[in-house]
Bifunctional dihydrofolate reductase-thymidylate synthase (Heterosigma akashiwo), 216 residues
Amino acid sequence: LFAFRKTERTISMMMKYRTSLIRLRAHGRHLNQHHWSALHSCAYNIVVACTEKERVIGRNARLPWSLKEDREWFLQQTEGGVIVCGRNCFEEELILGSLGGIGGRDYVVITSNPDKLMQQHPGLKAAASLEQGMHIASTYYKSKQVWIGGGERIYREALGGGGARALYLTLVHNGGDGRPPRLDLADGAAYARFPAWADRFPREVYRAGPRVDPGG
């Protein structure tokens, strides 16, 4: 593995290196200064993996790739924190958890029926909106770092909420283990995308990932 830190005005200058993933950490500007809410008063990080060009984050409400390194990085970074995410993302975590566990972090799940979800998962906290979810996170988990984990609508609200401290963005180039995602956006599947983020976050770029042999 290799890692380096570099600040650039554009991300395209970083793409000459062949890697399985590029991770960007960008510090956010506080937007919507007049929109005072739980999204503004509670600091949070946004963490996401998406394809480089189309910003795809999901296909039919599931992750369209397997990235072992990024999964391990995600678990390490969010250890001891609280993840605020939608129901589909939480269910995806339950599936992945069967392989590696989701313990070590708390969840606040945004869903249209929070009571039903909390009945299904005793001890879980759920809310009907992101603002309510952030209020729960800031009330019950005051000392914990808050991470926004998707999906598309929640990412969009969080990016414009004003409390975003940092964006941890993994750009997926080949889907993991050397295999391309092979995503056909015209195949009739429901694709979710990460919103455009460059206007909200200035570039402070960190990059880490395994080297890929030429032609690999």
Summary: The chain has a mean pLDDT of 74. The chain has one domain: 2-209.
